[in-house]
Amino acid sequence: MRLIRGLIMGVGIIGILVVIALITGLYLYTLSPSILGRAAPVAVTADAAQSFDTKLESTNTQIKAAVEAREKRDVNLTITESEANSKLVQMLAEGELPLKKILLNFGNGYFLAYAVVDTPVIDARTGAIGRIEIVDGKPKVVIEEFNLGKLPVPESVKNGVQQLANMLVSLQLADWPVDITGVQIQDQQLTITGTTETGE
Description:
This protein is α+β, with helices and mostly antiparallel strands. The protein folds into 2 domains: 1-30; 33-196, no CATH class. Helices cover 42% and strands 31% of the residues. The protein has a 4-stranded antiparallel β-sheet with strand order 2-3-4-5. Helix 2 packs across helix 3. It is globular. The N and C termini lie far apart (83 Å).
């Protein structure tokens, strides 16, 4: 009888500890990540979102002309923090992103991203700090720090986020006939330089 009572009590205590761990985990999950404390607010405007579109359209026109002429030409695209954030906020308003909030900072050699992900039960607050390297003419995102609320995040999760980010970048650049030669993040700007491919 004592053995059965002891087993029941042991299972009960384990159950209580699991519930406490879940509640604590959910609480930490809903808190803002520490990365947010290092983020700077960015002014967003409709004009800046339009400037983003205009710059991208102009660059695409240059690339198309070079490809049609079968010429290698240098291309350069510079996007400011304000333009990037304004475009992202516009996309949020139009329901194009599964997010409730997003903030992007361009530091000296690194980017900082904060996002509130729209999830069915509790919104996830995430933060990431990383840099961009060039590997075989393509940009590669390197995540140096990743936060999910205040939860301790294992290295495997950070690596998974990095792989997802690189997959999305590859998909976006799949039809872009440009060898990327440099990515510079400095003075609240992201500058991408490259050379058009001739198709030969």
